[in-house]
Design goal:
45% strand, 6% helix, mainly beta, 2 helices, 6-stranded mixed sheet, 6-stranded antiparallel β-barrel
């Protein structure tokens, strides 16, 4: 799955002609206009099992992308896709600026503080003002939430699978 980027979730069918409403996981949903192929995976399917679909049309509602696949012709077929994760090829993703990361690339990173491995990133949550890393502490005692803000992070090393934080004393207490 490393060659795919999750860009959204299909929330539900829209209309009678097979359109679906997608909740986008991007700060610019208009990017969907440029995509020709999407890959879909149901939550309960094997991670490597992806179905490829051709994009026929894209339009937008307030917070969702309304998309029509060439292969989906009616509401019943669109209903079947409810809850499906939507992916693109990593090569089709927009280039990231310095200190921008795809959330899925941060999940699984080992978290270090003062050269000590303190835990593992288990999720990235957007709380509005900034993203927060959900970190499972190494003793499995609890999850903590750490702000993913440049001033609190010394380094993100995707190649070596680690993230170095510089939080204040007592944060993990």
């Amino acid at each position: 799955m490393n060659n795919k980027i999750k860009v959204g979730f299909i929330r539900k069918a829209h209309g009678l002609k097979g359109e679906v409403k997608i909740l986008p996981l991007t700060d610019d949903p208009k990017r969907f206009k440029k995509i020709k192929k999407l890959f879909l995976r149901k939550p309960d399917e094997v991670e490597s099992l992806l179905a490829e679909y051709d994009v026929e049309s894209v339009r937008f509602s307030a917070e969702e992308v309304i998309l029509k696949f060439k292969e989906i012709c009616d509401k019943d077929a669109a209903d079947f896709l409810r809850g499906t994760s939507v992916y693109i090829n990593r090569s089709d993703a927009v280039p990231l600026d310095e200190w921008e990361f795809f959330s899925q690339d941060l999940i699984g990173l080992s978290v270090f503080y003062k050269e000590e491995n303190v835990g593992t990133v288990t999720d990235v949550l957007n709380t509005g003002a900034n993203d927060n890393l959900e970190i499972l502490l190494n003793d499995n005692s609890k999850h903590i939430y750490y702000p993913f803000i440049r001033t609190f992070i010394n380094n993100v090393d995707l190649e070596n699978g680690c993230l170095i934080i510089n939080q204040y004393e007592g944060f993990f207490d």
